[in-house]
Automatic annotation (TrEMBL):
Name this polypeptide is given: 6-phosphogluconolactonase
Recorded family membership: Belongs to the glucosamine/galactosamine-6-phosphate isomerase family. 6-phosphogluconolactonase subfamily.
GO aspect biological process, one term: carbohydrate metabolic process
Catalyzed reactions: 6-phospho-D-glucono-1,5-lactone + H2O = 6-phospho-D-gluconate + H(+)
Gene: pgl
Organism of origin: Granulibacter bethesdensis (strain ATCC BAA-1260 / CGDNIH1)
């Protein structure tokens, strides 16, 4: 399959005052989705400061006890290819902010390994996903993920779909190594895997993101985020001036 052209990604816009207000709002929203969804509830996590605040909120009352974490399978949308104890590791951040504070079975947590051959690791992570999904072919009527959390860079990248990199043309693999474009190698879910979601939830804060959010939602720019072709709903959770109410 060829990569489609850039397109608008309007979705539903939620505008909140602060990053903490965003975290509180999304925590309540996610808890309700987990309660109502059929298990396993697969969630793709994102790195960054805004998701960290969400994870810290989920680790506290009432969400740490109210959510039945045994029904949840956690994946990562992307990861820096560094050991899990490295401060730059998305898993390390998530473990400190959330996992170490909740009762989730270790067998329900699927971090991307950060050591070895990146290409082999990407292949193994894809195989793990396919085993969980039960088939090698993604069905638009059967999304892999209930929720995919994503951020948005000022250059329009999301996950590790980095401008100018070969992963932007990948429409067959579910997971790929990204060897250039950043100081460290990355492992990232590809467009097909990220698109296989009931909801893609962008978490974006700060006035510095206002211009790129507007351009992506209106389709007036050609960046990695505008090549997403979601099968489900898109929600933009924003705060601290990242967007204006419609």
């Amino acid at each position: 399959m060829t990569n489609p052209g850039a397109a608008a990604l309007p979705g539903q816009l939620v505008v909140l005052d602060t990053a903490q207000a965003l975290a509180d709002h999304v925590a309540a929203w996610l808890a309700e989705r987990i309660q109502k969804s059929q298990a396993p509830v697969r969630i793709a996590l994102s790195g960054g400061s805004t998701p960290r605040k969400l994870y810290q909120t989920l680790a506290q009352a009432p969400w740490n006890k109210q959510i039945d974490w045994t029904r949840v399978h956690l994946y990562w949308g992307d990861e820096r290819f560094v050991p899990h104890d490295d401060p730059d590791s998305n898993f390390h951040m998530t473990n400190e902010a959330l996992l170490s504070h909740i009762d989730i079975p270790p067998s329900n947590v699927f971090p991307i390994p950060g050591e070895g051959d990146p290409v082999v690791i990407a292949e193994r992570y894809e195989a793990r996903m396919k085993a969980d999904y039960g088939t090698d072919t993604l069905d638009p009527e059967k999304p892999f993920f209930d929720v995919v959390f994503l951020g948005l860079g000022e250059d329009g990248h999301t996950a590790s779909l980095i401008p100018g990199q070969p992963i932007l043309k990948e429409r067959e693999k579910w997971v790929a190594a990204v060897s250039e474009g950043r100081p460290e190698v990355r492992i990232s879910l590809t467009y097909p895997a990220l698109e296989s979601a009931s909801v893609i939830a962008f978490l974006v804060t700060g006035k510095g993101k206002a211009e790129i959010i507007k351009a992506v939602r209106e389709g007036t720019t050609d960046v990695p985020a505008t090549h997403l072709c979601p099968h489900g709903q898109v929600i933009w959770f924003t705060a601290d001036g990242a967007a204006s109410p419609e």
